[in-house]
Write a structure and sequence with these properties.
Shape: globular
CATH architecture of the largest domain: 3-Layer(aba) Sandwich
Number of strands: 12
CATH superfamily of the largest domain: Periplasmic binding protein-like II
Helix content: 40-55%
Number of domains: 2
CATH topology of the largest domain: D-Maltodextrin-Binding Protein, domain 2
Structural class: alpha/beta
CATH class of the largest domain: Alpha Beta
Length: 343
């Protein structure tokens, strides 16, 4: 737990570059004309989870084809992306930034004028927590809260260490990895469970889906909106109400001990580097209009899941089929350019 916290603190303090943290350019688009307002390359963070990745590609299409911006997708995740935005102003856009685990550093960055929020990425908010399948909840009515987990460790045996249960946490680099480690420590689960990292968002999804298909027990971290949450019936385990001061202490390497509590539910924002407001106000105006509901995002992701589409294909399908939504974010002329580019 402490190692994760120290790594986060070092990342913010030192301003580690995205490339040094594993981020590399993923896609570049450059178009003439339009109303971008800047010739600078606008880097967009493509996060490791489906909704954020699809949104990154949607922005790349609209800013590139519609506004004529020179855009580039770079790989990223919550912690390293926030760190480099704060330290270096790049990437310029984080399409779906969950600030709960970086809230103090992000708030300081906003106060210092380094970063800002262009608006809400998810208009009706998101959900984050620890879950079990509905069939597990029905068969074990006593398992209602995270505090009940030690009593049920034998229900979720770790294949690599059957003497303990396995809790499926977040992939490395995700902000929730830090939060889950803090809560794992706060609930004193180390004697009865192993904190398991699935390695990637895809592996986490695959582990959850496999358990549901086989109707096997599993306890795991997850969030919404997601295609998987819409597909399977998950039951959230109760946690005490979130306390902002306590949560800040949980993710602070110099504070402790960690306290059990629910995840915070801060708005999921479109994070921007502040230089965009001066250099490309039209881009910031566009980003301020881009907000989708849980249902709209889930519909987009469900199509991608059903068609085994990657983030780029999912974004393209959204552009081709949901002009009723995205055309409200741009001028009619930009909408025409985007539609023409899809042909």
């Amino acid at each position: 737990m402490r190692l994760h916290k120290i790594n986060l603190a070092i990342a913010f303090a030192a301003g580690i570059s995205l490339a040094a943290l594993g981020g590399v350019p993923a896609m570049a688009m450059s178009h003439g004309g339009g109303t971008c307002g800047t010739d600078k390359v606008i880097e967009i963070a493509e996060m490791g989870w489906p909704s954020a990745a699809a949104l990154a590609h949607i922005h790349a299409i609209i800013l590139g084809d519609g506004l004529g911006c020179n855009v580039e997708l770079v790989t990223g995740d919550s912690v390293p992306t926030a760190a480099t935005m704060l330290a270096k102003g790049t990437p310029a856009i984080a399409p779906e930034l969950w600030t709960g685990t970086v809230q103090e550093a992000w708030a300081n960055g906003v106060a210092d004028g380094a970063v800002d929020s262009a608006g809400l990425a998810i208009s009706d908010g998101a959900v984050e927590g620890w879950w079990i399948p509905d069939y597990v909840a029905a068969a074990n009515p006593g398992l209602k809260a995270v505090s009940d987990l030690p009593e049920y460790a034998g229900l979720f045996p770790d294949p690599d260490d059957p003497s303990k249960g396995r809790f499926y946490s977040c992939p490395p680099g995700w902000g929730c990895e830090i939060a889950n480690a803090a809560l794992f420590e706060a609930y004193n689960l180390k004697d009865t469970y192993n904190l398991f990292s699935p390695g990637s968002g895809g592996n986490l999804d695959a582990s959850i889906a496999r358990a549901f298909v086989r109707e096997e027990p599993i306890v795991f971290y997850y969030w919404g909106p997601t295609a998987l949450m819409g597909k399977y019936n998950m039951v959230q385990l109760d946690m005490p109400a979130n306390d902002p001061e306590g949560w800040a202490c949980n993710i602070d390497p110099d504070c402790g001990p960690n306290k059990p509590m629910a995840f915070p539910t801060p708005p999921v924002i479109v994070g921007i580097a502040s230089w965009l407001k001066d250099d490309a106000p039209n881009v910031v105006d566009y980003l301020g209009k881009v907000t989708l509901t849980n249902v709209e995002i889930s519909q987009m992701l469900n199509w991608g899941d059903a068609n085994k589409a990657d983030a780029k294909e999912t974004a393209r399908n959204f552009i081709e089929t949901r002009k009723d939504l995205w055309s409200q974010w741009v001028s009619p002329e930009a909408a025409d350019r985007i539609s023409a580019a899809m042909m």
